[in-house]
Amino acid sequence: MTRRIALTLLALTTVLLVLAVVPLAVSVTARERVAFRDDQRAATRTVAAAAEEYLSDHQPPDAMRRELDAAARAGDCAAVYDASGRLVARTSCTAAQGDEARELVKPVLAGHEPEPPENEGRLLAAEPAGEVRQPAGAVVLARSAAPLDARIAAVWGWSAAIGGAGLAASVLLSVRLARWVGRPLSALDATARRLGEGTLDERAAIDAGPPEVRRLAATFNTMAARTEALVHGHRAVIADVSHQLRTPLAALRLRLDLLAAGAEGDDAAELAAAQEEIARLSRLVDGLLAVARAEQATPRPVSVRVDEAVRERVVAWVPVAEERNVLLVASPGDALHASMGAGHLEQVLDNLLANALEAVPAGGRVTVECRAAEASARVCVIDNGPGMDADAKAAAFRRFGNPQARGSGLGLAIVHRLVTANGGTARLADTPGGGLTVVLELPLRQDGSADRDRGR
User: Fold this and answer.
1) Residues 6+ apart with CB under 8 A from 17
2) What is the distance between the alpha carbons of residues 140 and 142, in angstroms, rounded to a whole number?
3) What is residue 454's predicted lDDT score, i.e. its pLDDT?
4) How crowded is residue 403: how many other Cβ atoms within 10 Å of its Cβ?
5) Same-domain check for residues 19 and 99
6) What is the mean pLDDT of each run of 10 residues along the chain (456 residues)?
7) CATH number of the domain that 250 lies in?
8) Into how many domains does the chain fold?
9) DSSP string over 26-69
10) CB 137 within 8 A of CB 53
11) Does residue 321 sit in the same domain as residue 369?
12) Is 434 left (phi over 0), alpha (psi -120 to 50) or beta?
């Protein structure tokens, strides 16, 4: 962001400098040219006035000679022509003679104002000697354009220097402004990222940047403190509930076991049913605690090899599948690295496989696939069991969302919480031919290395 702010301000300043300096330099250049021409014409008229006394009043040529000498000392070349276009007098240089000079003399003697040309770095000017309509002669004065070029170069040089100084000042100010605004925001972004990764004690600095950024950082710190307190409070509640519920349940189960050891007949059947209810209640408490932990999960992402995790969990669950006469296989998949909390993918797969093996009847099949999607690792757990209707799928990720579930009804809720906490998605689809498919989209690793290690 710092670079974008600096470049934006620099571009804006450059445009403003160009719009201000270039027209000013063009205007000053035009004024210099006009002033140079006017000065040249004034010098030409001075010589023409002295030449008129000689040509029309038949005065001695002394005054004309003095003006020609003065023009020569000033670095100009001048030539005087009579009414017939004949050269009468000139300076020692010949730049005011030749074809171009005579082309200027003709319209002057005819009573017109010629357009003076520029030839080899010299400017020519022609003025009538006497009346404009009936001149007694004409004067041509050639002046070097070097002084004009030098002044124009100086104008553009100063303009470029002013523009460069303004641009340098703009670069300095824009970089400082961009850093003043951008650094606190970048630090706040990094702090928010670490907080999202599970470092709950992260706080942003509030002593740098504009007032709005400092207020934003202070508000963020307040939010982070409340989030930390809330998460720690929930974790404490979970720990307390875990202790307060499991201990009496364990004691109750032990007493029932002791009573069942000496019971007979109807008493033994009733105690066995009570033991089953206690076991069911224990599983329900464990499931609720697992859901609560998943909801409060603030994972610190690590690189997880998805295909290897799938193969390991399938191998671990194969004995359970064989005991239930269900075929459990893992299809060969892409070698992908996902970014997830440590152990979360294994927990998700365990819940999905437990649900699938519970739902699929004997002789059924459960397949786990792993392949690359556009920007994620896609894991699919496919079974050919009874499946779910649309209403059941819509509520499956909520606690006890599926009233027809054989277990606690919390497995998919745990899966959904863990996957979404890691930035992924979970959805349910129908298996072609019957059954249920759970599709997980897991975030790929973003550390600059290849996300796909095919063939490893």
Assistant:
1) 163, 166, 167, 170
2) 7
3) 38
4) 8
5) yes
6) 75 84 89 90 89 85 89 89 87 79 84 69 85 85 87 89 86 82 83 77 82 86 84 69 71 78 76 78 68 60 87 91 91 83 86 88 90 86 87 76 56 81 86 89 67 39
7) 1.10.287.130
8) 3
9) HHHHHHHHHHHHHHHHHHHHHHHHHHHHHHTS---THHHHHHHH
10) no
11) yes
12) left
Amino acid letter, residue 382: I
Residue after which a domain boundary falls, among 294, 327, 345: 294
* Residue 133 Cα distances to 41, 49, 197, 431, angstroms: 18, 15, 95, 107
pTM, 2 dp: 0.46
Characterise 388 by phi-psi region: left (phi > 0), alpha (psi -120 to 50), beta (else): beta
User: Domain range for residue 331?
Assistant: 300-443
Tally of CB atoms within 10 A around 356: 28
Question: Do residue 135 and residue 238 come from a single domain?
Answer: no
Judged by DSSP in three states, 130 sits in: strand
In a domain, 173, yes or no: no
Let me know: does 20 contact 117? Beta carbons within 8 Å: no
Cβ atoms of residues 271 and 256 within 8 Å: yes
Last residue of a domain, one of 294, 310, 341: 294
Identify the helix (H) or strand (E) that includes residue 302.
strand 302-305
Burial of 404 (0-12, 13-18, 19+ CB in 10 A): exposed
Residue 50, classified by CB atoms within 10 Å of its CB into exposed (0-12), middle (13-18) or buried (19+), is buried
